[in-house]
Amino acid sequence: MSDTPLKLGWEEWLSLPDLGLPAIRAKVDTGAKTSALHAHAVEPFGSISKPQIRFTLRPNPDDPDLEVVCAAPIVDRREVTSSNGETELRYVISTNVQFGDQKWPIQVTLTNRETMAYRMLFGRTSITEDMAVLPAESFIQPKLSYDLYKGFPRKKAAKRPLRIALLTREPNNYSCQRLKEAAEQRGHHIEMIDTRRCYMAINAQQPEVHYDGKPLPQYDAVIPRIGASMTFYGMAVLRQFEMMGAYCLNSAQSIGVSRDKLYAHQLLARHRIGMPATAFASSPKDTKDLISLAGNGAVVVKLLESTQGKGVVLAETKKAAESLIDAFRGLEANFLVQEFVKEAGGADVRCFVVGNKVVGAIKRQGAEGEFRSNLHRGGSASVIKLSVEEKKVAIKASKVMGLSVAGVDILQSSTGPKILEVNSSPGLEGIENTTKKDVASMMIEHIELHAPVVNTAIRTRSAKPS
């Protein structure tokens, strides 16, 4: 390193030349011990004595087609606790980091940062004693640009047959059968895997998923269709497939975020995405104050574990709301209280998002006398043309959750679109039968675009312009 002390702001551009990454925008965080780099399709390989790892990275959050395949020796595997308190077992690699003309080796953990604004977190163990971090400054070091990736190969859809696993406990339902049909029509092999019958061999060098007494093979991609009752175990199985290098249509982390209704609403609020006024409680003593937080009018009370409209009740008056909340308190259940958007007229809009595009939308109208619009409860559906604002908010909501495929439910209010829920496992029957669109094939096309390169990854990992 240079004799001149290096100064860093709270965000900086850097390069990782050994990984073939000329420009990464990183958050410099002295509160984080370890540096972390975004990685997906992580695949360990090599011998036990000299383990290696390859992974893909999309350096530009706004350009998902730019994908660089990297490889490096594994130096460790350790548990890392994130800022939200979750502990994750991560691979650790050693590589050189470069700011301007100064370069030195650092250790970096690999994790999925798809939902983060920065593809890299630069932690305090990567900062030497003679360096200074100025938290009020940004981009002190020379600014780089994603333009440095011009000429890099663009991600292209897979032209080879893919081996796909469909995680489900209901292989014969409409959605699973349509996905199977769409995959096979495009020349792929798809296997239905019962989530509950999977069990895992958890070790540092060769993670495996076992099924009926045998280890499952390496899959190119996994489609999770995990029911609410299987969320915890299903996420564990999905994480194991992620560690084995499979592309998961929705990651375990994104499914967990979307299923945690409280956290999902907090994320939406953090990103200034419109939603009905919402309050959260477990066993509040001040019921009146809780109702006032949700608008002081008619409210909807939802159990956090509710699905398909179950555990969702409308209280049209303040007194009815107080009685209802008192009843929920007796159940010792966690619940949300939301304002009732009367002008929606018992209807909502289901936007089906694949990648960065709304591929279909339907308006769901509740049955007469029913404020819930779920089709499972007798609601009807019709095709609707979305406004530009509605499309943007649906895509943004799914991106905030980190979901590649999502069913985003929107209320059309007098103050603009309001997000009700972001579903990580949306059904296909209602959207396909109403819009007559082949949404299942669109999901398979998305997998083709994002399935990892097999065997040739080492040759392409340098990612130098062709």
TrEMBL record:
Signal peptide: none annotated. It holds the Pfam family Rimk_N. It comes from the Bacteria. GO terms for cellular component: ribosome. Mn(2+) 1 binds at D409, E421. InterPro entries: Asp_endopeptidase (IPR008503), ATP-grasp (IPR011761), ATP-grasp_RimK-type (IPR013651), ATP_grasp_subdomain_1 (IPR013815), Peptidase_aspartic_dom_sf (IPR021109), RimK (IPR023533), Rimk_N (IPR041107), Rp_bS6_RimK/Lys_biosynth_LsyX (IPR004666). Mg(2+) 1 binds at D409, E421. Its EC number is 6.3.2.-. Mg(2+) 2 binds at E421, N423. It is an enzyme of class 6 (ligase). Mn(2+) 2 binds at E421, N423. Binds 2 magnesium or manganese ions per subunit. Its cofactor is Mn(2+); Mg(2+). Keywords: ATP-binding, Ligase, Magnesium, Manganese, Metal-binding, Nucleotide-binding, Protein biosynthesis, Ribonucleoprotein, Ribosomal protein. Residues 265-448 form the ATP-grasp domain. GO terms for molecular function: ligase activity. ATP binds at K302, E339, F340, D348, R372, S373, N374. Belongs to the RimK family. This is Probable alpha-L-glutamate ligase. It comes from Hirschia litorea.
